[in-house]
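Annex B. Sample input.
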Amino acid sequence: HDSTLLSMATGCGKTIVFAHAADEFMPLGRVMVLAHREELIGQAWRKLKAITGCEPDTEMSEYRANTYGAFRSKIIVGTIQTQIAGHGGKGRMAKFKPDEFSLLIIDEAHHSAAKSYRRVIDYYRQNPSLKVLGVTATPAGARPTSIVVTTLFVVVSITVTLLEKLGYTPWFVM
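Annex B, continued. Sample output.
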């Protein structure tokens, strides 16, 4: 399947897991990580750099990722809002070539049923080889879009109980 939704409780390491996924996909192409809040972008940037050894480019607000040349990073982190802004209505995502990307990571993927997310996901999915990894602590809930989100992805859920059985204690249980 081309899309996977990873559901893990808050504090169980979703960012660490997707940073390792990015590391695995980097040899196949660039990796785009999207979120809807600046603090999530900062957290992703730090974990991605620590785990992959690659300093991500940032595409957010006044920050602009390099799209060519030797200074171009294999990883880009940015906000969904920035992806759809500017470029005469095409959005800043238009500056990126979908075929260059092997993996699109959506942090807080329970938002991915929104039109803005669908527009960005559809843009990068012009690349038939692209894989999409969504991560969230809340794949289902009271929101009407929750059902839509779970139909967009194959859902993998990692519970606190499973993590403890594997010998990992989440920080909030300590």
